[in-house]
Amino acid sequence: MKFSNVIITKLSFATLFLALFSFSNISLAQHTLTVEVTNIESDKGTIMIALFNGEAGFPKDEKKAIRKMKVEIKNKRATIVFSDLETGNYAFALFHDENGNSEMDKNMFGIPKEGYGFSTNFKPTVSAPDFDEAAFKIEGDIVQKIKMIN
């Protein structure tokens, strides 16, 4: 009897150790998001993108973004790569900063004068999307193909 209790105890500890190790790998999993942007009007300027992992600040307050990047345009295309992202829900907003002022230029009615886009290719009708409308889940490496709205 004593021998079988020792074996059961050792197996229990081994199972617990493996379970903890497995869960820690899941929570520490790091993924890559690649954003491929097409339909850019020109190679002039850069693409500015802000990545959010919650609704706070999305899409207009870039200070609340978890990552921001400025990327060159080549042949009217741009590719942005965010690495080391944890599993979760994300959304991004991007625009073509043609004049290099790091701002989305708008006309007097608030309509964008520069190209823009959102994750999942959300196409706004009246206003920018909320987080849930543009959100997508990252559970592994992912590619989002975005067609710029001009």
Describe the structure.
It is a single chain. The protein is of the alpha+beta class and 150 residues long. Helix content is 20%, strand content 34%. The chain has 2 helices and 8 strands. It has helices spanning 2-27, 131-134, and strands spanning 31-38, 46-52, 67-72, 78-85, 88-97, 116-118, 136-138, 142-147. The strands form 2 sheets. Strands 2, 3, 5, 6 and 7 form a 5-stranded antiparallel β-sheet that branches. Strands 4-1-8 form a 3-stranded mixed β-sheet, with no helix packed on it. The longest helix is centred in the N-terminal third of the chain and has 26 residues, at 2-27. The radius of gyration is 22 Å and the shape is globular. The N and C termini lie far apart (77 Å). The relative contact order is 0.22.
